[in-house]
Amino acid sequence: MGRNLLMSSLENASFNIIFQILFRVITFIINAWVIRNVGHEVLGIMNVRLLLLESTILFLSREPFNRACLGQKDEFSWSQIINQIWLSVPLSCVLSLVFVYIWLNWLPLGSPEYAFQYAFGCWSVALSCVLELCSANMVLVAQLFCFIKFKVALDTLHIFVRTILFLSIIVYDRSLALIAFSVAQVGSIGAIVLSYYIFFYWYIKNKPLYAKGALKSKIVPDLVLHRLYDNMDDFHFTSLKDFLPKYLGTVNATFNKKLSTLTFSFAKQGVVKQLLTEGEKYVMSVSPVMSFSEQATYDVVNNLGSLAARFIFRPIEDSSYFYFTQMVSRDLPLHKQDKYKIQESCSVLSQVCKTVSSIGLIVLVFGQSYACTLLTLYGGEVFVASGLPVQLLRSHCLAIVLLAINGVTECYAFATMTSAQLNSYNYLMVFFSISFLVLSYVLTYVFGPVGFIISNCINMFARIMHSIHFINNKYKDTGYKPLEGLYVGKIFLLTLFVAGCICKLSENKLSHSSMIMHIAIGAVCFFCVLLSWAYENKDFVVKMYRKITNKEDKEKLARD
Predict the structure, then answer these.
(1) Would you place residue 546 in the very low, low, confident or very high pLDDT band (cuts 50, 70, 90)?
(2) Is the pLDDT of residue 121 over 70?
(3) Range of the domain at 257
(4) pTM of the prediction?
(5) How many structural domains does the chain have?
(6) In a domain, 413, yes or no
(7) How confident is the model at residue 552 (pLDDT cuts 50, 70, 90)?
(8) Residue 433: which of 401, 402, 458, 468 has the closest Cα?
(9) In this structure, is residue 4 part of a structural domain?
(10) Helical H runs in 38-50?
(11) Which of 44, 254, 267, 507 is the one with CA 20 to 30 A from 416?
């Protein structure tokens, strides 16, 4: 296969970051409008209770199959991989029935006037999850064959359809906010699933024509066709039926035992990881810690505090996981694998660690001086009057540093662990998840909502230590030290410290009288920090610039 996995991963991460920003900006604007015109309580039901239901069903039913199948295309037949990933659909149906029952009967709503809309929302979310998994097979194929531009188009479609449907209904009648959320959820996912099937029908139909040189299109440029079809000799799908499950004669032939074992390992891991990821929302939902209004406030602050995580860290983690699964074999020691691949993956891991650690430190330093400013611009002075939102956001900035490091190190560990190591780690994850939930419950009663953030920091620090131990052991006999990337440069740290002092002084002296001047000073300091980082990492910056501006594809097409 002639595709450049590193460039594909970088391109995927870049587009993911752009569309995460676009999606979150639109979401934040809608949330701000809902807070001012509908109320905190409805926002709490949507963003905490209903989105938690979606996250629970999707993560437990999709994540294990996706992670298990990503790095296995060369080891198993496509039929076995397709059969395996289709199992997520019946699993999602079962999980939907179970969790919708729990959401409707065990989790108190406390707002009778929203009972019907809440029930409608729960069933709509479950339907959207099942629909989304009906295209999980095509999502996997698109990722493995690097259809990056197609994913960008679908991300745009998802944002557009969801926003239009939600706003159309809520503007018509503000009392139907939960109905609008539900319809937008199902409608946008339905559009995505349909688009996947239409695209692959078109792609398969036209692939033979391209091979013969007979494919010409006024709509699709030649360069796009070249990128879609060139180096695709290993794309063996000849019909949409190839994307559907099929019986291969025996159960053992239909479902590979090793692949099923790996999937089961990720499934066990997924349960505890979901508890770790969404633990505070589960605690909010099952205990009377906070009202829906308070939950909405916490969710707004949490989302603002997680901007870097959602916009940057998550896309980097997803692309890095894909990259490492393709470059590093799970079952072979590093010294028995391709030396070039190991050297390149080590260099990538080191640079990614340095990049996300630097971003986390920037967020931590500037967050202390601009938390109040950001929340005032978003929710108004009344929203920050109690001081709690500002305290939450400042505390969250520390969590972001740990989140950045944990995301990359754990992603590498998950991508390279053997099945036995994954099973062993599952037991440790159980301990982490139980400790996290207990800490969340106890610290919330002691420190209030800030207790959620403190418990999360403790949990992530413990997971970072385990991942670092795993990576050090993996590389101990190779001479490579990828975790040196966690040590950011001295000039960068010094510049960041000075910038933090200046911004804090600006907050105390200028923010109340001239917010614009306070923001301008922060912008100048931020630019200086970026310059210092670029200076210390100039080789990496130059290398990335050359990769991004690479003209090889166009030149090759011109030669052809």
Answers:
(1) confident
(2) yes
(3) 30-288
(4) 0.68
(5) 1
(6) no
(7) very low
(8) 458
(9) no
(10) 40-44
(11) 254
